[in-house]
Amino acid sequence: MNEILVLASNNAGKIKEFNALLSGLGFDVKAQKEFAVEDADETGLSFIENAILKARHACEKTGLPALADDSGIEVDYLNGAPGIYSARFAGEHGNNQANNELLLQKLAGVPSEQRSARFHCVLAYLRHKDDPTPKVFHGVWEGRILESLAGQEGFGYDPLFYVPEYNCSAASLPKEVKNQISHRAKALKQLLAAFQQDAAK
User: Which residues are catalytic?
Assistant: First the structure.
């Protein structure tokens, strides 16, 4: 029987994605809301701290192993902002339109060579709430910020994130391409490799 793994997220897309990847390794990924777990307070000062906080919270509430991800975008011209505050950059959590407008405002008039940016995704896996050695995986996706929105796919900052190797925004990439090259894809590949290694022991 598959081992239940709690995902410290209620994002249906993520649940599906993790299940597709991990079911072959003996895991059944369930959303934390199935266990009536509220979101953890993200009081960390880095993606790594927040991912571990979220996973530890889910372990504590369910008594099961948990996986959490924390991700966001870092803009060099803004000294790394919005960073861990990416989802609530403009104040209201998850307001993509307001976040994108604020980012464009802050970069108004900044030449394209100074608009370098990268997406980060950190995944943290804890076996139990007192796990002293969380497994942490970190994916990075390099690009720069466009001067206007482009593309209909994706979410968040994707319409503003220019992907040099494809000469278009992340929101203009077909889903299957994005899922191969994004920050989350890179972190997931590391996670999968580590889990496969453990399974082979």
Answer: 70
